[in-house]
Amino acid sequence: MQEINPKKILLHTCCAPCFAYPSIALREEGYDVISYFYNPNISEETEYEKRKEELRKYCKKEGFKVIFEPWQNEDFVNISKGLEDEPEKGVRCSKCFNLRLTQTAKKALGLGIKNFSTTLTVSPHKVSKQIFAEGERAQLLFENKAIFIPFDFKKKDGFKKSNEIANRENMYRQNYCGCIFSKNASLIKQNQ
Ligand code: SF4
To answer: Whole-structure pTM over 0.85, yes or no?
Structure first.
């Protein structure tokens, strides 16, 4: 039987800038943070590799363990079928959070890690309650054997603090969430 360490946490990570403050905050709370990069929502492999590389560098520098999954965009394509016209913060985003958090819960169980959470709440563009609902759904799917901890990282100036670290470290930072729909919306905004 695998030993369960209550202070270990598998932290789903969308990118290095969003990991910056949450990882430090959790470490200060006594958590042993393991970053988990599973983001099939990212529409292009080159972009996936850029975000991955930036996270790898930062984790190495700060001494965090990190686990990377290969780029698997088809996972996202499957769950977003029929939801192409959804706005950001809509049903497609809920499905996207669910996909990533279900996989994080599964991974945590496989690794014998009791707790899981996500860096996604640090973004002011995301509704934390919407993310928490999907984290809880993932927890229930695995019969509460992995526990989702609803950290709202945008509180206490979390986004500002993450930005400060990202600027200091000269991190690569994308200007869209990840999927092709968010990329297109960002391009339209830039051209207005
Ligand atoms: S906008 Fe972001 S959260 Fe919403 S579906 Fe696209 S990648 Fe996922």
So the answer is: yes
